[in-house]
Specification:
The structure holds 2 protein chains of 2 kinds.
Chain A: H1 2-15, E1 22-32, E2 38-47, H2 49-56, H3 69-84, E3 90-94, E4 97-98, E5 105-112, E6 115-128, E7 136-140, E8 147-151, E9 158-161, E10 167-172, H4 178-192, E11 204-209
Parallel strand pairs in A: 1-8, 1-9
Antiparallel strand pairs in A: 1-2, 2-6, 3-4, 3-7, 5-6, 7-11, 10-11
Chain B: H1 2-14, H2 16-21, H3 26-57, H4 60-79, H5 83-94, H6 99-127, H7 132-174, H8 179-185, H9 190-205, H10 210-221, H11 225-261, H12 265-296
Classes of the chains: A alpha+beta, B mainly alpha.
């Protein structure tokens, strides 16, 4: 009986975090190196107007109606510093193995109308040669599910840069098996501090290359 | 057995998510939760969109759509599991309260939630001049205060139940009878009652929804001062209605069980106290685990 109680409480804690309060329209690029290996994942985050104004109010110090460049940059630096602990919301897989990611580069941010845009590139520590047997997949999601992150135009939001011929990418919709979602809500609390729900609402992009003959 | 039943009902209401684990049809509940998430997401997008619409067109239809979308957003926001519902359900399932008061409690706490968001945004951001991102710090402290109140409320309920148990015990020994028993089933008198009510309303209401804060800041940035207030208040109204529904259900369920047992008045009286203690412990544990979690989880972008 006591167990039930403990369960109830943990569930309450877990679930009280789970509402999407903002959204990000995402565009991604897989960058290949000169050897034709997948080497980095470039990301463009376009934040929704509500969150954008929440984040940028008061950054227009010179009063020209737009947030100052320097202030935007400071905001970007702060966001990236915080996101580092969350692996930039990015999970990359080589088959079923997790791909280690290095220090991000080419960070920048700007306003697109009333929406904040952030760009950065996540390099893979070891570039991956893709073939029929090795495919690459990635998911970009907020584990707390506070922010919903989606490829705005599905497949058109993903591009392959300098990819060998025969490479293709596909965006798969999240398919939260309802029972799994419920299980996640109760299990992940103990596993990683309650940050578990987001991945069940995450899109998966997979990149495949046919071997050249 | 009774306590067990009521206890299960606490769990059931405290978090719909829990229902899956205690063996109610899991697919129904999880589908329902997944569906309500979808609705929330959709309404959130529409909410932001309709505020923007008002700033572009400033028409009557745009305002009307904002009000309806805010209301629906609030309604669906409350449909998922959350801390306020756990407190309300845990309290009502274990304490003798009337339906009307349950609904007042639910509505008042939802409205206070909206008012807290208004105070934080208009008070801290616009009057004191904090940046919204810094105000988030204030929000997390307000949140912790609310969790602390949940804990204190739990302690108060336990003490109250123990006192009433002791009084029962003494009365039984003196074998004085009926009119004393009557006093017990009535509400505890005035001052304490107000204190408990205030405790519940604040323990829920001091935790403003981040969504409401974002919406307010956004409306303000577009120069729509009044629109933001309307949106947040209608949102609270929607939440209040959903939570009232839950409160009504819990009280009805409780009184249905207690009516079934009132034939044996003395047994009910004893288990009644036991259930009250359990309710108190439930809130106590809930409060502590929420407090604990509030230090562990900070969002990188809020």
């Amino acid at each position: 009986m006591l167990l039930f109680w403990v369960f109830c409480c943990f569930n309450g804690v877990q679930s009280s975090l789970a509402h999407p309060h903002a959204w990000i329209d995402l565009r991604t690029e897989i960058r290949f190196n000169s050897k034709g290996e997948a080497a980095a994942l470039s990301q463009i985050w376009l934040l929704d107007p509500g969150y954008s104004s929440f984040a940028t109010v008061g950054l227009d110090k010179d009063g020209d109606g737009n947030p100052d460049w320097g202030e935007l940059d400071a905001l970007l630096q702060e966001n990236m510093r915080n996101l580092r602990k969350f692996n930039y919301f990015t999970q990359v897989f080589n088959g079923s193995k997790i791909v280690k990611i290095g220090e991000i580069f080419e960070m920048s941010s700007r306003m697109q109308g009333n929406r904040l845009e952030m760009r950065f590139v996540v390099p893979f520590v070891r570039p991956i040669k893709l073939s029929e047997k090795t495919n690459l997949s990635y998911r970009i999601f907020d584990p707390t599910y506070y922010i919903e992150i989606v490829h705005e135009k599905k497949n058109q939001s993903v591009s392959l840069i300098r990819a060998p011929s025969g490479c293709t990418s596909i965006v798969k919709d999240p398919n939260p098996d309802a029972a799994t979602v419920m299980l996640a809500a109760s299990l992940d609390k103990t596993q990683n501090g309650g940050l578990g729900l987001g991945k069940f609402f995450a899109e998966t992009v997979s990149v495949k290359c046919l071997t050249q003959r | 057995m009774t306590s067990f039943l009521v206890f299960v009902s606490v769990c059931f209401c405290a978090s719909t998510a829990t229902a899956a684990e205690i063996g109610l049809d899991p697919s129904f509940w999880s589908n329902f939760i997944a569906w309500s998430f979808d609705q929330q997401r959709a309404f959130h997008k529409e909410l932001i969109g309709s505020i923007q619409n008002i700033s572009n067109k400033n028409s009557f239809t745009a305002s009307l759509s904002l009000i309806s979308v805010s209301f629906l957003y609030g309604l669906f926001h409350a449909a998922g599991p959350g801390h306020g519902k756990a407190v309300i359900a845990g309290y009502l399932a274990t304490q003798p309260e009337k339906r009307m008061r349950a609904i007042i409690l639910a509505t008042a706490s939802s409205l206070i939630q909206g008012v807290t968001a208004l105070i934080i945004v208009y008070g801290l951001i616009y009057a004191v001049g904090l940046l919204p991102r810094d105000a988030n710090n204030a929000i997390s402290w307000s949140e912790r205060l609310s969790f602390l109140l949940v804990t204190i409320l739990g302690i108060i309920l336990v003490i109250k139940a123990l006192q009433s148990w002791k009084k029962d015990h003494d009365n039984a020994n003196k074998s004085e009878c009926s009119h004393l028993h009557f006093e017990k089933i009535n509400q505890p008198p005035g001052f304490r009652n107000i204190l408990t009510t205030l405790g519940i309303v604040l323990s829920i209401g001091l935790r403003p929804c981040t969504g409401a804060v974002v919406v307010l800041v956004f409306a303000q940035a577009l120069g729509l001062y009044f629109t933001g207030i309307i949106a947040v208040l209608t949102m609270s109204l929607g939440t209040g209605m959903a939570v009232s529904g839950l409160a009504f259900f819990v009280v009805s369920f409780r009184s249905w069980i207690s009516r079934g047992l009132s034939k044996n008045f003395r047994i009910w009286n004893k288990t009644g106290n036991l259930i009250s203690i359990m309710g108190g412990v439930f809130l106590l544990v809930l409060g502590i685990s929420l407090l604990n979690a509030s230090w562990q989880v900070t969002h990188p972008m809020f």
